[in-house]
Design goal:
The complex is a heterodimer of chains A (about 325) and B (about 260). Helices cover about 35% and strands about 25% of the residues of chain A. Chain A is an alpha/beta fold and about 325 residues long. Chain A has 2 domains: about 5-225, Rossmann fold (3-Layer(aba) Sandwich), CATH 3.40.50; about 230-295, 2-Layer Sandwich (Alpha-Beta Plaits), CATH 3.30.70. In chain A, strand 12 (about 255) and strand 13 form a beta hairpin. The mean pLDDT of chain A is about 90. Chain B has one domain (about 5-255). Chain B has helices at about 5-15, 20-45, 45-50, 55-60, 65-100, 115-145, 155-170, 175-185, 190-205, 215-220, 235-255. The model of chain B has no long low-confidence stretch (mean pLDDT about 90). The chains are: A alpha/beta (about 325), B mainly alpha (about 260).
């Protein structure tokens, strides 16, 4: 079976500005692929190229086995998408907006509109005009439009934007169900690694592609994310200088940690904090705090894109 | 054309739900009402005397208070007002997709972009034609109320044909406006082009080359320059057709091939 999405050496230049450069990625069917990057990293440009909205300067794009950059048949009947913020016709109600989309997607079930209204918990707002909806409900309508025709592939640009915490959990659960129960492939962009990690944390095959300044920096399985994150042993005591001297004498590389702690990055310190504690106690410098800190996802991401914050975890 | 009927239905729904049809009808209704007012002023010498300048102006614009003059005024109003109003409709139908950021939803659908563009053009034609039809009806009502002297039925038939032809020529000229709305991604660029076209049409016609400038031709055809000017020729019709064709092709090409970052 062909990949859901494949790009080969994809590039896009706007005059002197290179938005995307040499991007080659492959999204397998039935997986969640999270496309992660800071604002302006090239995520939306890439999504626009996947959807044929923007023509690449170089390279090729294949979606569900069909070439998007060519003149042949396109796979749009099997693709649902939401690009950037969700917009709709302000003078139409939510239901009318869905009905309009239903007509523009021939073959969509007549019951799809009501099914989407229920699925995304929009019944109370169904007859309200789009212009009067909250940002969260606009986002839900955007997702409803993307899901209306039961697509095989969902391409979502920042799907959690504008949702409240309950809404984020709900949408996360919905997307997970789509992948697990219906085998839908999801390609979603985000600038929040923690959000992505949570989405693929429940037995869903998931990969993360990190884009920075138009280039794909790294692709990794979410399952292996743990092993990429930096861990350190943080220590605090009454005489920090004396403790540092004891640790250095024992061959540990001590660095300044957060909030005035000492941080040890050595593998033996992280795996055997009890040994470090015993060493300090025997030298008369009993620690008042000793804990293994794991780099959080946001800092891992920032470190990867070269924006590491000094002494941060 | 893939799914054209459904795309047209969607365009009609968007138009019906907006206030634009009502606004454009009210704006265009001014033409027969203003024409009727001048007829009324011209008909009554007493009022004409009291109105002073207005009477003079009405005489310059309209000549005498009769059906041929009044129907001529209507045709001229469609030719000049129509360019602005039909352009406004076109700017709204096309430019709104960028102004409201809804363009993204139309670009990767099983309903192809050509079907969506054609549906929009069909809506503009239908909308503009209906507006003209309504102002013709309103014009007949206003003319009758003003008490214009009776005229033969053939005059009304000829006027209806002239009005329809003027409307057709004016509608043909919306395609470059549609292109300006698409390439300019909003309402303002196409309206700027329309206003510029109307100003240029006046200047070019005043210079005597109106037969060769697309936006001057509907007005000249409607008889705005008076009987002394004569009829516009086949070359003028061809120029309007070619300008329309260029706008039509450019709009389709823009939707199909230009980068769309709505």
């Amino acid at each position: 079976m062909t990949a859901a999405i494949e790009t080969r050496n994809l590039s896009k230049e706007y005059g002197d500005v290179t938005a995307v450069e040499g991007l080659s990625l492959c999204v397998n069917r039935g997986e969640i692929y999270a496309f992660l990057g800071l604002n302006g990293a090239g995520k939306t440009t890439t999504i626009r190229m996947l959807l044929g909205m923007v023509k690449p300067t170089a390279g090729e794009v294949f979606v569900l086995g069909k070439e998007i950059t060519g003149v042949g048949e396109k796979p749009w009947e099997s693709v649902g998408y939401m690009v950037e913020r969700p917009y709709a016709y302000a003078e139409l109600t939510m239901r009318e907006n869905l009905e309009a989309m239903c007509r523009l997607r021939p073959g969509t079930s007549k019951t799809a509109v009501e099914r989407m209204i229920d699925l995304l918990d929009l019944r109370r707002y169904a007859d309200r005009r789009f212009g009067t909806l909250s940002q969260g409900n606009k986002q839900r309508l955007g997702l409803a439009k993307a899901l209306l025709h039961e697509p095989d592939l969902l391409i979502l640009d920042e799907p959690a934007n504008g949702l409240d915490p309950a809404g984020i959990v709900e949408i996360r659960s919905l997307l997970r169900e789509l992948v697990i129960e219906q085998g839908v492939t999801i390609f979603m962009s985000s600038h929040i690694l923690g959000e992505v990690a949570r989405l693929v944390d429940y037995g869903v095959a998931g990969r993360i592609g990190i884009i920075h300044e138009g280039r794909l920096l790294q692709e990794l399985d979410v399952a292996k994310l743990e092993s990429h994150r930096r861990r350190r042993l943080e220590i605090r005591g009454r005489d920090m200088q004396a403790m540092q001297a004891v640790l250095a004498a024992a061959g540990f590389t001590a660095e300044a940690g957060l909030n005035g702690t000492i941080a040890l990055g050595d593998e033996r310190a992280i795996t055997r904090p009890d040994v470090v504690a015993a060493l300090l106690v025997s030298a008369g410098q009993a620690p008042t705090m000793l804990k293994v800190e794991e780099e959080d996802l946001e800092h891992y991401f920032l470190r990867l894109v070269g924006l590491d914050l000094e002494n941060s975890l | 054309m893939n799914n054209l009927a459904q795309a047209t239905w969607v365009e009609l729904l968007k138009a019906r739900r907006s206030r634009m049809p009502l606004i454009t009808l009210l704006a265009f209704s001014l033409a027969p009402l203003a024409g009727g007012f001048f007829m009324w002023v011209l008909k009554d010498p007493e009022i004409a005397r009291r109105m002073g300048m207005i009477s003079l102006k009405a005489q310059i614009m309209a000549g005498s208070a009769d059906w041929p003059t009044y129907l001529g005024v209507l045709a001229q109003a469609v030719a000049i007002g129509g360019i602005i109003l039909f352009s406004l409709i076109t700017s709204w139908v096309f430019g709104r997709e960028w102004a409201d950021h809804t363009i993204n939803d139309l670009l990767a659908l099983p309903t192809g972009r050509p079907a969506i563009v054609l549906a929009k053009f069909l809506l503009v034609v239908f909308w503009s034609a209906m507006l003209t039809f309504f102002i013709f009806l309103i014009g007949l009502g206003v003319g009758a109320l003003t008490g214009l002297p009776q005229a033969p039925a053939t005059l009304f038939q000829e006027s209806a044909v002239r009005l329809a032809m003027t409307t057709g020529l004016t509608i043909l000229l919306v395609t470059p406006i549609a292109f300006a709305a698409s390439a300019g991604r909003g309402y303002l660029p196409p309206m700027g082009v329309a206003i510029m076209a109307v100003i240029l049409a006046q200047l070019v016609a005043a210079a005597g080359w109106g037969d060769y400038f697309p936006w001057s031709i509907p007005a000249l055809y409607s008889g705005v320059a008076g009987p002394a000017y004569g009829e516009v020729g086949t070359v003028s019709f061809l120029i309007v057709f070619l300008a329309s064709l260029a706008g039509f092709v450019a709009t389709f090409a823009w939707w199909e091939w230009a980068d769309q970052a709505g």
